[in-house]
Write a structure and sequence with these properties.
single chain, 419 residues, alpha/beta, Aspartate Aminotransferase, domain 1, Aspartate Aminotransferase, domain 2, 2 domains, seven-stranded mixed sheet, four-stranded antiparallel sheet, 13 strands, globular, binds pyridoxal-5'-phosphate
Length: 419
C-alpha cells in the first residue's frame, strides 16, 4: 500500500457551512474583534427565544410549565458540565459575567484570609482576575506579581517558583492572554502551585473560544469564562472543584447553607433563558464534530470540531503574522510565530510613528471590525510601555473568519500603514 492510501484523510472545514450557523456574518462586516465579543450562534438565539416564549415562569413549582422550565435549566447545567468536563454538575456556577463571578469568588474567599497570606497575580491578566484578589488586602493578604518576560512574552516558571512559598494561598492567572495571545501551561503551573499547598484560579475567557475546555486536565481549582466570547450570550460560568466549593461560606440567603451547591454562590436567580441558550454551544460543537465524521463520546465528537477550528484559525493567524512580520514599522506584541500551539489567534501590534486609534479608525471605513486599547489588561500595557501608542491594535480571529477576510484585512492594513 502506498503512503497516500494508508494516510487517514482529514476532512477540511466547510467554512460556508460554519458561517451559516451565524446569521450576523451575512452583514458583510469582517469581524476581527472576536476576543471582544464573538458572533452568536442561531441555535443559541433560538433556544433563548424558545425559553422565553414557552417556559418563562419561575422554576421549582409543581405545575407543568414550571417543571419544564426547571428541567431546561438543569439540562443547561448538565450541558455546561459536559462542555467543560466537570466531574459533577453542582460544580457549575452560573453568573452574568466573568468579572462578577470573580468578585463573588473572592468575596467568598475573604473570610478565610489571614494576615500575611500571600496571593500571586500576573501582570498579564484582564483586571477581572486581579482586582478581586487585590481587595483581599483588606484582610491582610500580601499580593505578589508574576511578570511576563517581555523578551519571550511568556510567564517564566522559574519566577513563579521564586514567588511560591508556604504562605501562598492562591495563584490567579490567565489560560491565554487576551492581548499577547500566549497560551500558558496551566497544568504545569497547577502542579507547582499544589506542591506549595496553594490553589489555582484560571481565567479562560481568551482560551475557551478556541479549544475544548477540560477543567480536570487544567489542574485548576477554579476556572472561569464568559459565553459571549464563545458564540453565546452575555453570560458566564465558574467551575470550581467540588471539595473547594464546599469549603466556602454561602453568599446566599441564610437558609441556603454552605453545603448547597451551586446555589450558595448564585445569589438571586440565575438567568434561565441565557442558561438554556448556552446549550446551543454544546449542540453546535457536537453537530459539527459529527458532520466531520467523528464518533464516540460527546466530548470526543466536540474535540474533533474544535481541532478543525484550531487548525483553520492557526492558518489564518500565521497568514496575518507573516504580513505583520514583513512590515518594518510594525512591532508584534506577542509571539510572532505559531509554534506547537503556543498562541491564540489574537494578535496585537503597534506601528512606529502612529497612534493605534488612527489605524483602527481607518479600518472602520472599510467595514473591518478591529479595535485598539488596553483591553482591561492595563497593567500589561503599562508595563510594556505601550500607552504612548494609545494601547495596541488587536486583531482577534475566530474559526468562522475566512482567508478572503484576512486578505481584505491585510490589503487595508497596507493602506493604513501608508496613510
Ligand atoms: C481575558 C478576559 N478576562 C475577563 C474578561 C471579562 O469578562 P466579562 O466581561 O464577562 O466580565 C475579559 C473580557 O474581555 C477578558 O478578555
Amino acid at each position: 500500500m502506498t503512503d497516500s492510501m494508508t494516510k487517514k484523510v482529514v476532512p477540511s472545514l466547510d467554512i460556508a457551512r460554519i458561517r451559516s450557523e451565524f446569521p450576523a456574518l451575512a452583514s458583510g462586516i469582517a469581524y476581527f474583534d472576536n476576543a471582544g465579543g464573538a458572533q452568536v450562534l442561531k441555535r443559541v438565539a433560538d433556544r433563548i427565544y424558545d425559553y422565553l416564549l414557552s417556559t418563562s415562569v419561575q422554576i421549582g413549582a409543581s405545575y407543568s410549565s414550571s417543571r419544564q422550565a426547571s428541567e431546561k435549566v438543569l439540562a443547561a447545567r448538565r450541558s455546561m458540565a459536559e462542555l467543560v468536563n466537570a466531574q459533577h454538575d453542582e460544580e457549575i456556577v452560573m453568573g452574568g459575567s466573568t468579572t462578577g463571578l470573580m468578585y463573588l469568588l473572592t468575596q467568598a474567599i475573604l473570610p478565610g484570609i489571614c494576615e500575611g497570606d500571600e496571593i500571586i497575580v500576573t501582570n498579564s491578566d484582564h483586571e477581572s482576575n486581579i482586582g478581586g484578589w487585590l481587595r483581599l488586602q483588606q484582610a491582610g493578604a500580601i499580593i505578589r506579581i508574576w511578570h511576563v518576560d517581555p523578551a519571550t512574552m511568556t510567564l517564566p516558571l522559574d519566577q513563579l517558583d521564586r514567588l511560591l512559598n508556604k504562605r501562598t494561598k492562591w495563584v490567579a492567572m490567565t489560560h491565554a492572554s487576551n492581548v499577547i495571545g500566549t497560551i500558558n501551561p496551566v497544568a504545569e503551573v497547577a502542579t507547582r502551585v499544589h506542591a506549595a499547598g496553594a490553589r489555582l484560579c484560571v481565567d479562560a475567557v481568551a482560551y475557551a473560544p478556541h479549544r475544548l475546555v477540560d477543567v480536570q486536565a487544567s489542574g485548576a481549582d477554579v476556572y472561569v469564562f464568559s459565553f459571549y466570547k464563545v458564540y453565546g450570550p452575555h453570560y458566564a460560568v465558574l467551575w470550581g472543584k467540588r471539595d473547594f466549593l464546599l469549603s466556602l461560606p454561602s453568599l446566599n440567603h441564610h437558609f441556603i447553607g454552605p453545603e448547597i451547591l451551586p446555589y450558595k454562590l448564585q445569589p438571586g436567580n440565575v438567568n434561565f433563558e441565557l442558561s438554556y441558550g448556552c446549550m446551543g454551544i454544546h449542540d453546535y460543537y457536537l453537530t459539527i464534530g459529527k458532520e466531520l465524521g467523528a464518533s464516540g463520546t460527546n466530548r470526543q465528537c466536540m474535540q474533533v470540531a474544535l481541532d478543525h477550528f484550531a487548525r483553520h484559525e492557526d492558518m489564518l493567524c500565521e497568514k496575518l503574522l507573516a504580513f505583520l512580520r514583513s512590515k518594518t514599522a510594525v512591532r508584534i506584541i506577542g509571539l510572532a510565530h505559531i509554534e506547537n500551539a503556543n498562541r491564540m489567534p489574537t494578535v496585537s501590534f503597534v506601528v512606529d510613528g502612529k497612534q493605534s486609534e488612527d489605524v483602527v479608525r481607518f479600518m472602520d471605513q472599510h467595514q473591518i471590525g478591529i479595535r485598539f486599547g488596553d483591553f482591561y489588561a492595563r497593567r500589561l500595557i503599562e508595563d510594556l510601555g505601550l500607552q504612548a501608542y494609545g494601547g495596541v491594535i488587536r486583531v482577534s480571529i475566530a474559526h468562522y473568519n475566512t482567508e478572503q477576510e484576512i486578505d481584505r484585512l491585510t490589503d487595508k492594513l497596507e493602506l493604513a500603514l501608508q496613510a
